[in-house]
Specification:
With 201 residues, the chain is an all-alpha fold. It has ten helices and no strands. 42% of the residues are buried.
């Protein structure tokens, strides 16, 4: 199993400092997820707003690995459940625990699982090259969409499969794939920088 990016950049000699660095990295990705949620564009034909969260979740997970990526999104959900304004701003959707019961709850609850899967693939070296990084992030994105569309069919909206796809998949998939094309280059670029820095030492 390959080391993750967080393994490569954290201290190896001082265990306590290394733990602190990892906690800081988890909190940083949690904060980025919350910030990305605030870049929210409501769409008139669906209750699901457009945000940049999925890409932050997936890139963060690729950097952190499966367990820390999972932890970053569980922390994000915990902060939201506690009532902190970390979820996407919306005049129709409440902050707090009620958000998870609304139409976007499935996407939010899928984030930890998507982060774990993408991080698991990154631990196996998928984040080292562009095409394999894209595969890892597509797998994570599939989990996000599966959770979101599935929840639209089960939650208060009770949409049928075709209607759930129309509300929670079709309006977003092309934009998310375009963002993924950019996001897939982040980790290989970071690994290249790390490799050059290590060769200079």
């Amino acid at each position: 199993m390959s080391s993750t990016f967080i393994d490569a950049i954290t201290t190896r000699t001082n265990t306590n400092f290394r733990v602190a660095e990892r906690i800081g990295a988890v909190v940083f990705i949690t904060a980025l997820t919350a910030v990305a949620a605030q870049i929210s564009i409501p769409l008139p034909f669906t209750p699901v707003p457009f945000t940049f969260q999925p890409m932050v979740v997936l890139v963060g997970a690729a950097a952190l690995g499966s367990r820390l990526g999972l932890a970053s999104q569980l922390l994000y959900l915990a902060l939201g459940l506690a009532g902190l304004p970390v979820f996407a701003l919306s005049p129709a959707l409440p902050q707090g625990a009620a958000r998870l019961l609304g139409p976007t709850g499935g996407y939010l609850m899928a984030y930890p699982f998507a982060a774990f899967l993408t991080g698991w693939l990154a631990e196996r070296g998928f984040d080292r090259r562009y095409l394999s990084a894209m595969v890892a992030m597509i797998c994570g994105l599939v989990v996000v969409y599966a959770g979101g569309v599935g929840w639209l069919m089960m939650a208060s909206t009770r949409l049928g499969f075709a209607a759930a796809l129309a509300a929670g998949f079709y309006p977003f998939v092309l934009a998310d794939l375009a963002k993924l094309l950019v996001a897939s280059g982040v980790m290989p670029a970071l690994w290249t920088v790390i490799g050059r820095a290590q060769r200079r030492l």
